[in-house]
Design brief:
Layout lengths: L1 H9 L6 H28 L1 H6 L6 H27 L11 H25 L2 H16 L14 H5 L2 H13 L7 H25 L3 H4 L1
Length: 212
Amino acid sequence: MIFLLIFSEAFPQIQNYPVFALSGLIFWTFFSTTSAHIMGSLIENSAVLRSLAVPPLVFPVSQLMAGLFNLFMSFIPFAIILHFFGRLPHISDLLVLPIVLCFAGFIMGVSLALAALNVYFRDIGLLWNALLPAFFYITPIAYPSDLIPERMRWITEVNPLYHYINAFRTVLYDGLVPTAETWYVIIAMAFLSIVIGGYLFKVLRPGFIANY
């Protein structure tokens, strides 16, 4: 309601502002909540990991699956809102599924690194929760990207969240198919995130028990 009543007046150039805002907010919520839950999953289940021979990876994966379930449940009211504002279903909407898969891979990689580091340095959790609001405001979620000054446009280009949310909006808000360049970028970021996050998790795993 805040976005609808206040921000829609601030950006009158955006048609169907509620759809524009929600198409970003849904996936931002998926990123912020899922990454935070995965990051804390090892510490929260440390008693289980000390007493049972359970692979530590089980808990981050379970949190990712829970986040995906919540995301897909949020699509139900979102679809109703889309219909209310005159957005008709289109076959291209199915492209949301591979985009979600790429986004989930990116989140998993980042969160695995955070979870592993959080075992050794508990301030990582506090730091991440402090950084999340900053990521929200530098990502064009509540405002269009063309409002960003040209001299600061590079911040948007290096922000992975911008590319994923832009891909979602291209499908759900614009009703178009993302460009080949967009697909290359989001797939490459997901791959690199999983490789780097998985490697860091594997390297730090031997010391988990001693630092829980």
